[in-house]
Design brief:
Layout (H helix, E strand, L loop, with lengths): L5 E6 L3 H12 L4 E4 L4 H4 L8 E4 L1 H9 L3 H4 L4 E2 L2 E6 L6 E3 L10 E4 H13 L4 E4 L4 E7 L2 E6 L4 E9 L6 H5 L4 E17 L6 E7 L2 E8 L7 E10 H9 L2 H12 L6 E4 L3 E10 L3 E2 L2 E3 L5 E2 L7 H21 L7 H29 L4 H15 L2 H12 L12
Helix pairs in contact: 1-5, 1-9, 9-10
């Protein structure tokens, strides 16, 4: 190249943005990836103790971009999902049949970042600019550019907003957004416990919100580990975070109902506000939104990152198809196809998670009894259970080729 113009200018080098850059490179597309954060801080021990459920389809994406082999040793399979309403009778179990594989894999966020960052550093089609602040975003019918605080001007043909929920690129483009605050916080911590988890993910619903126990690999000495995602009201969040370890563990054990035995230790606790947002559209002139820049959902079903990775797969397929026809990555018809493909699917997933949040948040014995009757009906209906398991795996609907085995 005679100048620094690349196919894509990706603003945001997190899990979704960097996956896009790697997936695009596999199709021969070059990119600038610009991120404010310091990758050394993001991958430091203890910086982010969260763990993420990776669906079957997302795992295929990781296989197809070449990072799955290095990640495999850190995966903890989700062999089953158990759903209960306050540990009362009427439990719903999702267990794949023989040969059905897993319902996903759990990974520490740090390991996902390390795998993506190491692959990106080796990829010549990716120009990764970290610790950079974008001072100006330029888009016209002829191309796009990001001007950095140090004076660099990185040019491309299509701008991608992958900056997360507070995306300045989305806001600058004037894309309207529907959003609301659940007035809940997710308390996240790693736990060690007495009983093995058996690769079962637990989703225990309480009126204040879901209480999830997600399986992690045992420590080298055989200590059993899980990741806790405990939703509490905004009013209670600060108090829960201030509890001493002994009091915190007592509250956790009370809600667990003995499913993992005695809780031994708790790791670093973090607290995250929960809200919903969804944009009216996900494209503009030479601009596409992916991941949380376009949609933010409740973690109730563990689909947030996976939804963003489906955006990645669809966008890369659309752009690769266009390249074969000699079309520019910013061609309006290509962006229209991406909008059509992802707009409805992401909206339906967002509505479903919002509906579940509200359904299980209705208080009272009658509401609990109705929910448990509904779960019992699903438990007895193999077709419905298969549908929900396919949704959890991310293998339903019009799936991009890069998310297939």
């Amino acid at each position: 190249m005679t100048d620094n113009t690349r196919d894509l200018v990706i603003l945001g080098g997190g899990l979704v943005g960097m996956t896009l850059a790697l997936a695009a490179a596999k199709k021969g597309m070059s990119s600038h990836v610009i991120d404010r954060a310091d990758p050394a801080e993001l991958t430091a021990e203890g910086f982010d103790d969260r763990a993420t459920a990776i669906s079957t389809a997302s795992w295929h994406l990781f296989e197809n971009i070449g990072i799955a082999e290095g990640l495999d040793q850190f995966a903890c399979d989700i062999a089953a999902i158990a759903v209960t309403d306050q540990n009362k009778p009427g439990r719903l179990d999702f267990v794949p049949g023989e040969g059905g594989g897993t319902l996903g894999r759990m990974f520490p966020n740090r390991r996902l970042r390390l795998a993506l960052f190491e692959a990106a550093a080796k990829e010549p089609l990716i120009n990764w600019v970290a610790k950079a602040n974008v001072t100006e975003r330029q888009r016209s019918e002829y191309g796009v550019a990001a001007v950095l605080a140090d004076g660099q001007k990185l040019k491309g043909r299509l701008m991608i907003a992958a900056e997360g929920r507070q995306s300045p690129t989305r806001d600058q483009a004037g894309i309207s957004i529907a959003k609301w605050d659940y007035k809940h916080r997710a308390i996240i911590a790693g736990l060690t416990h007495e009983k093995p988890h058996g690769n079962v993910a637990w989703e225990i619903f309480y009126p204040a919100g879901p209480f999830a126990l997600l399986p992690l690999n045992d420590d080298a000495d055989g200590t059993h580990r899980s990741s806790l995602v405990w939703t509490v009201s905004e009013a209670d969040g600060a108090g829960v975070m201030k509890l001493g370890d002994r009091a915190f563990l007592a509250e956790v054990e009370k809600r667990m109902g003995g499913v993992l035995g005695k809780v031994k230790t708790v790791g670093h606790r973090s607290s995250w506000p929960l809200g919903f947002h969804h944009t009216a559209k996900i494209t503009s002139e030479r601009l596409a939104l992916i991941g949380d820049s376009a949609h933010g959902i409740h973690p109730i079903a563990g689909q947030g990152l996976n939804l963003g990775l489906r955006d990645v797969g669809a966008l890369v397929e659309v752009l690769a198809d266009g390249a074969r026809l000699g079309l520019d990555p910013g061609d309006p018809e290509l962006l229209k196809r991406y909008e059509t493909w992802r707009g409805l699917d992401s909206f339906m997933v967002a509505l479903a998670t919002d509906g579940l949040t509200r359904l299980f948040g209705v208080r009272g014995k009658t509401a609990s009894a109705v929910r448990r009757l509904g779960m019992a009906a699903v438990q007895r209906t193999p077709m419905l259970k298969s549908f929900f398991m396919d949704e959890a795996r991310g293998v339903s609907g019009d799936l991009p080729e890069i998310l297939r085995a």
